[in-house]
Design brief:
This protein is an alpha/beta fold. It contains ten helices and eight strands. The longest helix is centred in the middle third of the chain and has 22 residues.
């Protein structure tokens, strides 16, 4: 495979599972892919599968200082960035906060993509690029509060994961409002349920996703392959899309009600600016 279209994509969480499959799919479509992850050995294996010019960039997305360092590395390699896929995410049990004092679910699923996108506005604008924030499917009436996301009341677990992905959809809408004038398109993608990924492996105790999840998926026929989900990444990342669109399993649908509330989105943005400012370089 070679970089035939002259375009560059960044894939966070690209060293295994869905992120790896999406990176391979983009490379197969002619893209140069910068794969971001923590495990250098896995990163090297993924890059072997990709086209010319693709690289692995090691980073700890739980550290906002390292997220900003990563952004600098990306800018040096891609002064024009066509596609940023904020794919890295996860669910965590109760644990110590990050070095920035953030609950880990919020840090990885919301704060890191927020900071990385803000730090890459110039190369994205130079290419009139696209940002794809990877989210999950949540009910239209699902609720979340700022206190549940960040601060002393923020907790881990599956409900926290859903609330944080809801918040990321709201961030997507706000990013489009703020960045659209620069020629940047921002969308949210729920790629579908992929039972074979490592999702949930960081949780302690009984975890239905890593124990009975694959069995239930096979028995009842729900879930898709990583390859099919990866095709959705390519479509939403490269085909015409609606600005700030919410692509549920790759198809446009109305975003959850709370994410369209301008007061919630604005308050969340202000909170994100406040809690990430201390890690600024």
């Amino acid at each position: 495979m070679t970089n035939t279209n002259g375009k560059t994509a960044v894939m966070t969480g690209g060293t295994s599972g869905l992120g790896e499959a999406a990176a391979v799919a983009l490379s197969g479509a002619g893209w140069r892919v910068l794969v971001v992850g923590r495990d250098a050995a896995r990163g090297a294996e993924v890059v072997k599968k990709l086209g010319s010019g693709s690289e692995f960039l090691q980073a700890d997305l739980f550290s906002l200082e390292d997220v900003r360092r990563l952004a600098g590395e990306i800018q040096r390699r891609a002064p024009k960035l066509d596609l940023l896929v904020n794919n890295a995410g996860g669910v965590f049990s109760a644990s110590e906060p990050t070095v920035d004092g953030l609950e880990r679910t919020f840090a990885l699923n919301v704060a890191a993509p927020f900071v990385l996108t803000e730090a890459l506005v110039e190369p994205l604008a130079a290419a009139r690029g696209r940002v794809v924030n990877v989210v999950t499917g949540v009910a239209n009436g699902f609720k979340a509060s700022l206190e549940q996301l960040v601060g002393p009341k923020a907790k881990g677990g599956m409900m926290a994961y859903a609330r944080n992905k809801l918040a990321l959809i709201a961030v997507t809408n706000e990013q489009q409002k703020r960045l659209g004038a620069r020629g940047i398109t921002v969308v949210a993608l729920h790629p579908g349920i992929i039972p074979t990924t490592r999702f949930g492996h960081t949780m302690t105790g009984f975890n239905p996703f890593t124990t009975i999840g694959p069995v239930m998926a096979k028995l009842f026929g729900f879930g898709i392959t990583a390859e099919k989900a990866a095709a959705r990444f390519v479509d939403v990342g490269t085909a015409p899309v609606e600005q700030a669109g919410y692509y549920y399993e790759g198809k446009l649908r109305p975003a959850p009600k709370l994410t369209l509330d301008p007061e919630f989105s604005s308050s969340l943005w202000t909170k994100l600016e406040a809690v990430t400012r201390g890690a600024a370089a």
